[in-house]
Amino acid sequence: MNLTYEKCGDYLIPNIIPEPEPEGELRKFGLMRKHYLKEYKSGIYQGMVLSGKLKEHLLMVQEQAESHFDVLVGQMSEREGVTEQLKEENQMLWVQKINNIRTRAEEIVGEEIIYCNG
């Protein structure tokens, strides 16, 4: 934060100029982390808001979570035989299995990355 002062009568009033936020859009995992911090770790959340580091943190967690999610979905799909061939042969079964895999992967990512302390 860049802190300057403006004289107003006998008082110096701070002109608080926040650092620009990093570029990037918050998606599912970033928003989940934000909600978690706001609801359950309000001290950490407020500290990050005041220091201007919240969005940077959320984008970093989001990137880690999305990467881990993709790896988990790939590994589970391979292990459980959810392939493009299954998709061609029985699309409804493929959708059921891939949705189940994605739900389990999201739960794992939540426990390991989104809802961890700090």
Structural features, described:
- This protein is mainly alpha-helical and 118 residues long.
- 68% of the residues lie in helices and 12% in strands.
- The chain contains five helices and two strands, in the order E-E-H-H-H-H-H.
- It has helices at 28-40, 42-51, 54-80, 84-89, 91-114; strands at 2-8, 11-17.
- It has a two-stranded antiparallel ribbon with strand order 1-2.
- The protein is elongated and about 80 Å long.
- The model has no long low-confidence stretch (mean pLDDT 92).
Task: Give the strand content.
Answer: 5-15%
Instruction: Determine the structural class based on helices, strands and strand pairing.
Output: mainly alpha
Overall pLDDT score: 92
Write the H/E string, N to C: EEHHHHH
How is the main sheet built?
A: 2 strands, antiparallel
Instruction: Give the end-to-end Cα distance, rounded to a whole number of Å.
Output: 23 Å
Query: What integer value in Å does the Rg equal?
Result: 22 Å
